[in-house]
């Protein structure tokens, strides 16, 4: 609690959610809400799962409301890890916030953004 | 990429008002400082500055202050000795964030080139969003500080513009 200041309105600053799912031909990671140090264990699990699977991974960041360097590091390291196994990280947007953050750390070329209108199923069909 | 460099020196001097302070002893208190800092800047600062025409999320001072507050306080919790405190002050050049801790033997270092290495991305983000970033030792404590401008750094805007983010 701040010592001399309180906000007048309640803030929704609950930790976000990290979901990882094995799909038919790819791994799906869904990030939702505030992706920060509070979900670092969940991010580590999702990253390990995705790397071990060694398949194309789609990360849905459309509903990320906040991301700190722990979240950015997760995206960057997962993209680099997948690339080292010959797989690819695809980002499902739009998320201007996430796009700006990975650009500012110099990682804009590590992951490819899916077209906004493309659904994961469309991409799977198009690349199979 | 970063036009701002990490300097060793005291925070900028000037007339600073609207000082807010936080005790940072848990991750939750870091999140609270981040949230309250964003609210304070949005209420006090951005009411006088229209949204930046670029439309970039981090063109807003409140977003850059929130990110910086979160990163500096989290670093304090993870890498320094308690007690960790944070403050936010208003000046004529923007917003001054100062995070203080009891670890004088471990000082900040500029991030390396490898963006996939563990650590360093937080300070990289802070440096990209700040006008000035620095640290100093003072009366047995370490101070890490950042000056966030009301308007975004030109180097940050140029980087985001080049990426053509929409």
From TrEMBL, chain A:
Domain STAS: 16-106
Pfam families from the UniProt entry: STAS
Highest taxon of the lineage: Bacteria
Protein name: STAS domain-containing protein
Upper classification of the organism: Bacteria, Bacillati, Actinomycetota, Actinomycetes, Kineosporiales
TrEMBL record, chain B:
Keywords, in A-Z order: ATP-binding, Nucleotide-binding
Domain of life, source organism: Bacteria
Listed InterPro entries: Anti-sigma-factor_SerPK (IPR050267), HATPase_C_sf (IPR036890)
Name of the protein: ATP-binding protein
UniProt xrefs under CDD domains: HATPase_RsbW-like (cd16936)
Claim: ATP-binding is one of the keywords in the record: yes
Gene Ontology terms, MF aspect: ATP binding
Keyword flag ATP-binding: yes
